[in-house]
Write a structure and sequence with these properties.
Helix 1 crosses helix 2. The protein starts with a strand and ends with a helix. The chain is 33% helix and 25% strand. The chain has 156 residues and is α/β, with parallel strands linked by helices. The longest helix has 16 residues.
């Protein structure tokens, strides 16, 4: 697993835009990291890279959808979800199965069972210098290919 250093918010935005260039309908990305690690900032870069309106944190709305870009974006935040059965109420399983766009789920480590077989996990951590570290792990054929392609793009 490769680890990439992101020096600042602009680097996080660039990483999100690089990921956007690789995304296709049906892709599911789980985001892990502490509060302030850059999960929403990365999603904002993805949204910008896909040509969507500015993404905002769905902490209180739980799921935001953006359909004005190259492909629809379903952005979920599970921080306030307490029980797995609450996921049914927000329709996350249905959104993922619909596969009409890309689904990005913050705090996926709280409910990893919602992930399909093919997915990518992105982990963001605050580094000692105030920047961030980013790593990506794919599962399934598409998830592995996406993680590898993204790491190659970020290494350029």
């Amino acid at each position: 697993m490769a680890v990439v250093h992101l020096a600042d918010a602009r680097a996080t935005d660039r990483a999100g835009r690089a990921l956007a260039a690789l995304l296709a309908p049906g892709d599911v990305i789980g985001l892990e990291g502490d509060l302030g690690a850059g999960k929403t900032a990365l999603v904002q870069g993805v949204a910008a890279g896909l040509g969507a309106t500015a993404a905002t944190s769905p902490t209180f709305t739980i799921v935001n959808e953006y359909s004005d870009g190259r492909i629809p974006i379903h952005h979920a935040d599970l921080y306030r979800i307490e029980k797995a059965r609450d996921l049914d109420e927000i329709g996350l399983d249905e959104t993922i199965r619909r596969a009409d766009g890309v689904t990005l789920v913050e705090w996926i480590d709280r409910f990893p069972e919602v992930l399909p077989r093919d997915h990518m996990i992105v982990t963001l951590r605050v580094s000692e210098d105030g920047g961030r570290t980013l790593s990506a792990t794919g599962t399934g054929k598409r998830g592995v290919a996406l993680a590898e392609a993204w790491m190659v793009a970020l290494a350029r």
